[in-house]
Each structure stands twice: as C-alpha cells, then as structure tokens.
Amino acid sequence: MKYRTIFIAIITLSVLIFNNYTQQSDFSKEIDKVIDYYAVNGMFNGCILVAETNNIIYENAFGYADFEEKKYNSTDAVFCIGSITKQFTAMSIMMLQQRGELSYDDKIVEFFPEFEDFANEVTIRHLLTHTSGLLDYLNDLSLHEKLLEVTDKIAFDSLVTYKRLKFKPGEKYSYSNSGYFLLAMIIEKITEKSYREFISENIFFPLGMKNSYVLDESFYDIPNRVKSYEFWREIDTDVRVKVNGHGNIYSTVKDLLIWNNSLSTYRLVDKTTLDIAFSPPQLGNGEKTDYGFVWHIKEDQNGKTVFHRGGIAGFRTYNGFQLNNKISLIIFANNTEMSEVNAIINNLEGIFNRKHYTLKKKSICEYFYELWYFRGLKAAKNKIQHVLEHERSEYDLSEFRLNELGYHFLTRGNIDAAIETFKINVKLYPESSNAYDSLGEAYLRNGQIDLAVKNYKKALELNPENSSAHEMLKKLEKK
Question: Residue 43: inside a domain, yes or no?
Fold first, then answer.
C-alpha cells in the first residue's frame, strides 16, 4: 500500500508538471504570435521578457539596436529604462527608512533650506507619491528642450528660482520628475555617497544585476547601450539629461527580472515596508490615486499587479509584476515609431487572463514614414496609394498622426514629403478644415502660392472660424 501511494503521488505530480508545461508552451506560442504581428508590421523594435519567478516563459528581441549599422537587438542589450529608474530611488529611500536614517514624514527643508519660503510643508512621502505640488523641471519647465545638457544643479536651481507650488502638498496627484531628483539628492546627503555609488553597492551588486548602470556627470559611457530613435532619427536626450533619480538607469530585461523577483523574496526591505509602498495614499480632496511609492497599482482576478512605464528620448519601457503569481512582463523599445508598448501590454494581459483581445491596426503614418525612409518618396507614394485603394481597413488612418508626421517633415525641410503627407490627410478627411490648412502651409513653404491660397480658402469654407487660414489669406492678399 505504501508503494502504491507513492506511485500515485508520482503520477499526480507528473500530470501537474505536464499540464503546467503545456500551459506555458501555449502561453509562449500565443505571446509569440502577438509580438511577431507587431514586429513584422513595423510596430515594435526592442526586447520582451515574460517569466514566472525565474522560469522564463517567453524571451525575444526584435529589430535593430543600431539602425545605421544594422546591429540587431538582443535580450542582453542595455536600454535606458526611463522612469522605471524611480523604482530604484524609492527602494533606496525605503532602505534608509528601515535602517532608521530618515522618516517618510521628514520635511525637505531639513535637507534643503532653499525651499523654506514656498515648500516648507513638503515631505519625503509627498515626493515619493507625486503629491508634493512641485513643478516638474521637464514637463513644466522643459529644461531638456532649452538646454544642451541638464544637471542636478541646473534642475535644482530652476525649482528654487520659480519659488512656487502647483497646489498644497498632499492635496492632489501630479507626476513630477523633480520629486525624484530631490530624493536622489537626499540619499546622497544622508549616505555621503553619490547616487550611483549607493545604487550600485546596495542594489545592483547584492542582487547580481551585472548589466545595470547609473548615468551621471562622472559616468556616461554606458556599455552595450542601444541607440534610441524618433522617426528613425537617432536621439540622445537620455545622455544629455544627467539628473539623478528619475530616469538615468540603464539595464537589461534579464536584470529587471532579477529586480522583480527580489520584491517577492524581500531581499532589500521587509514585507511591512513593501506593503506600504504598494498602497495608494489618500489625497486631501478625499480621492485615492493608483500610485504608491512609484509603483502603479492594479487589481484583478490575478490579484495585485505593480507596474511602471518609462519614456525618454526614443526609449519606451514597461515593467509589470503580478505579486500573487510572481509573473513579470518586461518590455523595452528604442524607436518611438515602432513602440506599440501599450497595445502589446493589453494583448498580453488578455492572454494571461484568458480573455478576448484585439490586435491594433497598423498605422498608415508610421508605414508611410518607414517606406519614405528606406525606399524613397516615389515608392512610398505608390505603396500608400495601393493601401488606400485595396487595404484601407487594415490600417489605423489617424488624422492627427498624419498631420503630426507632415509637420515633422516640414520642420526638417523635407517639403515634398510634407506635401504628400498632407495630401493623404486631405484625401482621407475631405471635411477637415485643419487638413487643408496644413496642406496650404506646405505649399506656401514650397513657393506654390496659388495652391496655398486654394487650400486656405477651402479650409475657411469648411470652418469659417479657422483663424490660422484667415490670417494667412490676409497676408497673402497684401502681398
């Protein structure tokens, strides 16, 4: 009887293992089908990893790390993770709090007397939860667009110079990169180490994250860094913004898997500390956000998922972790025009939850640009004409995105391409005053006055309130 019981137990275990293997195999095939669709159709360029704890269910890389050199992406490639950096900053603060070296309710004026006049009620907790009311030096002040290089000092001085908050601390939620570079500075003040040294010594090294780096003013040559692109043009905003704490960590999908698994094993802080981080705060207006200590929080049939997105230069990233099932979904992309990250997340969550999902249509805008970039304007015009006549239902024909692409061409002196883009928009949206207005502007830039006037008049005919078309016609009549 004893041996019979053992035999039955072995058979039962074997069935469970086989079923689990089959389920993961099915998951992997379904995931591959989704990602392949986006990659083949020019909507994804980067790396994806899906895992249950350390068991990798799906791992693959697509497209180029360097478009000019035709160097392929790999799952060992190092990407800027953008705002996912904030998870590491928050963890550092949590570690210092657990060691008794700070309190979440410490006011920032204890570290920065310069804020006494206008931000004397802002606490570390407010910085962690984006409820401080501080101006965002990127989104509100746009320093990265005005300056060739931005440093901690420049960002800090800008906040002190403006001397104002957007609202009373704790009253509302407003995403602010400023809060996280201040947290990085607090880490440096308390530990007397640079942010890079602290993160490396207390997180990267202990966890074995061997391919993760902090970029700062002293270390900016990131090994194996992929290039980032907007409209297939290399862009380097990520290395020009040398500000700690909110977007300056570089890593691989495999290293982020190590990071996620450390959360469920409490390698860095205890469960009580982490539970606080995964709980949204109550706002002064009575509402609750979905944002804890830099983790967005979502609950469904799989329990609680914590996640964050990142975006800087041409990088678009996502890190999600299901706390109950310990499933990681990590996505890195390095070309904004091939970064349907949100659509991929929605589709993969549909697979995980066994729900129906719909693949996003291909974008006519990105497709036209890709054709123009690789094959030239004539080939792009001919192919798009064929698409509009025979394959229209397969594409996302966004008027806004086409208009945006037209102005991208226009501002870079590619006037013929701009005209063709706006002509496509007019054909698709013949009742749009804005489409004709944009086409008129392109013709004017090209010296084709008669065609400019014709399109401005059509824009006014469709919308007599179109002030732009009205003003341009007045100027052209004077000339």
Answer: no
CA distances from 479 to 439, 442, 453 (A): 20, 18, 12
The CA-CA-CA angle for residues 87, 281, 329, to 5°, reads 35
Is pLDDT at 149 greater than 90 in this prediction?
Answer: no
How many folded domains does the chain comprise?
A: 2
**Taking the model in full, what pTM does it have?**
0.86
Neighbouring residues of 17: CB distance < 8 A, sequence distance ≥ 6: none
Q: Could you tell me the CATH number of the domain that includes residue 402?
A: 1.25.40.10
Output the CA–CA distances (angstroms, integers) from residue 285 to 172, 176, 295, 452, in the order listed.
7, 19, 21, 51
Same domain, 259 and 238: yes
Single out the residue in 290, 325, 352 at which a domain terminates.
Answer: 352
- Please check whether residue 422 is in contact with residue 442, taking contact to mean a CB–CB distance below 8 angstroms: yes
How far is 108 from 131, CA to CA, in rounded Å? 13
End position of a domain, from candidates 352, 376, 391: 352
Range of 431's domain?
A: 362-478
pLDDT band, very low/low/confident/very high, at 7 (cuts 50, 70, 90): very low
Cβ-count burial 271-299 (b if 16+ within 10 Å, e if not): eebbebbeebbeeeeeeebebbbbbebee
Residue 58 has pLDDT above 60, yes or no: yes
CB atoms within 10 A of CB 363: 23
Name the residue with tokens 């350390």. Answer: 54
What pLDDT, on a 0 to 100 scale, did the predictor assign at position 17?
A: 38
* 141 lies in some domain: yes
Judge if 176 and 259 occupy the same domain.
Answer: yes
Contact 242, 216 (CB under 8 A): yes
